[in-house]
# Entry
Amino acid sequence: MSKKSWHIPVYGLSPGSKRGIMIMRDAFDGSMEEQHIERAHRDGGYTFIVQEEGKTYLEIDFQTCRLSAPGIVFIHPNQVHRVIAFEAATISTWMITEENLRPEYLSLLNTLTPVRTLPVQTATVTTLSEAAALCLKLADQKTDQLQTTLLQDSCNTLVGLVISQYLSEGNITGEHSRMEELTRAFKHELEQSFKTIKSPAAYAGSLNITTSYLNECVKASTGRSVSRHIQQRVILEAKRMLYHSTRSVKEISAELGYDDHSYFTRLFTKVAGLTPLAFRDKNLD
# Structure
């Protein structure tokens, strides 16, 4: 196994990017030749891809995904991913850093994770492509005093359009809407605290609801219990650490809040279907 650093690689925006915003439109076919693109990594911002033509094959958190036109995908900065290949693909893609996002959009994005590739209507991709083309023009302008503000506003419009597509999947009202809202709040709390808090009751307490009602909301919205979400989030992080570092299972267990690494190994095996070391061996470079 090749030597790996503890930190998962994070690829930021290119030097020519405008104040934390990168946007491009291009055509690709075949596998990526640039090694830094092929290597699994995290991005230094919130990344969005609009598939205008063809297909893009991605690996996101160890799951292979196919993004077919017309379609979209959002990749959170926490998600480890890589491009596998393109098939006659034309894409518009942009990355935007946290400080450039509208607060309400940032909050929604942090509760959407993880998301799947999403098929959309051709008209939706056309609208997104046209909005992206405007952003590209703004990014190329050099003299306009409001250029940075206009680019930021335009990119936030793009982000809002993508968020609306994901939210429209669960476009419901009444009590179900309340359940969705509480589920998003739970997922936000989980992302912040999964290393230290493992109890469903603790998450319910932070939301000022009962444990049974939180479980009802989360299960109705996602099909999985609160405990299952907690376990899967912990094991996902463990997979990232196993893949990107040479830390021992005991060290990873402690990092994730488990003093008993034997218990952690049993939990990993239960959720992932193989032991931590078997997962590491399976994903050797």
Observations:
- Residues 18 and 131 are 17 Å apart (CA to CA).
- Strands lie at 10-11, 21-31, 42-43, 46-60, 63-68, 71-75, 81-96, 118-119.
